[in-house]
Fold these 4 entries.
Entry 1:
Amino acid sequence: MLNRALSEPCTFALLQWPALVGLLSIDQPGLPWLALRILVGLWLAAMLVAAYTGGRGMGFGNAMLLQCGLVAAAWWMHPSAWAFAWLAAIPLLMLVAQRLRLRRLETAG
């Protein structure tokens, strides 16, 4: 269980961030692109809901949601140097998510 608690923030990041960047970058007109955007958006929503379930707690889900917000802010500010300011907070949130997950594991066991 310890390995799972330590690896879950990285796993959620690998599942959420490509979907988020894909959702933000697909802006082509046409039905296939719209269907792809809907599919990627549903995947992202499912991953965000999954971050709150499974005994992970509200804190872990909030950390994952805030990380998605920081990735979106970095995408929005991309041509400027401010994008790096948003990206600098992500490793701190990864640590927070791991600690929250470990605390949840300690109180459950």
Entry 2:
Amino acid sequence: MRLVPDPVCGEVDLTATATELACLASAVAEGAGFISAASVPPSDGNALAGIEVRKTLGSGVRIDLDAQRQTLVISGDADARAVLADNLHAMATAEDGGHLHIDYFPEHPYLVEGSLPLVVNSPHGGMPTR
């Protein structure tokens, strides 16, 4: 898995294998876990170390950056995490390329205001051919 924040756009770009995305989807559904990112060359110093998933009370999912630990943090209640987990699982099992934008907007069905935008790339890369 590779996690790279974009300081200009403010989003985090996630590239992972189908297996890594499936593991992330499971951790999000369970509300606990840490998924390590691959070691990166020193020239890629802004890449993140991994993703931590936490359970929280309240409603919605929040995606944050723990800058001190260089970790993306996904936290939220069970219902909202289930929707995100389903989206991640769908990307992991898709047989085509593409990407998923997870961006907050008013009245978002599961993200809370202040969440970092996340782009999840298909394990197959590129854009869908169908």
Entry 3:
Amino acid sequence: MNITINDAQGGIEEIKAAVVRELITAHKADFDLITPAQAGGILDLTQKGLDALKLPKVDLLGNGRSIRYRLGDITEKLNERTVKAAKK
């Protein structure tokens, strides 16, 4: 990551904001989180079906009530479970 003083006009708050923007851009895939309801809607699965996929869960608040799934984990699981058509 390369941030220069010229990137942030006005002081430390602008520099902090530039660093945060850069970190979010660099690690976007790590933060692409969706709720169980969104994951279920995308995959047309119930919560029981989602649980059967054994996707890694992100517990945002550490209380079991704020579960999210990473889109990258869902994509990876779909790739693992993709069945190739047999050649005729």
Entry 4:
Amino acid sequence: MNSRPRPQFQTVDEYIDHVDAAIAAGVEPWPPATITELKAVFDHFPDYARRWLPAPKILVSIGLPADFGRDPKPLSESFQERILATLEVDAEFRAAVSLLLNGGGAK
């Protein structure tokens, strides 16, 4: 880690610019110091930002879900089969899933 004191970033965008420049230069950026910075770095650099994830208990204590920033667990085989069976017989469900997969869902 850098022995210099962490710079004061005036805005979240300034912090994100720092992370972007550091990654491009091949050096370790300063980790996020606020919840806002943590959320922003996950929006812009999710794969890189995982190194800064606090423990699930800490995430909950700062108001974030325990699984924030983590890859979702795969669905069980039986659940996948249930979804496929429902897709076959339920036209409304099929349409809703199609909208979600094609970016037509609510943001």
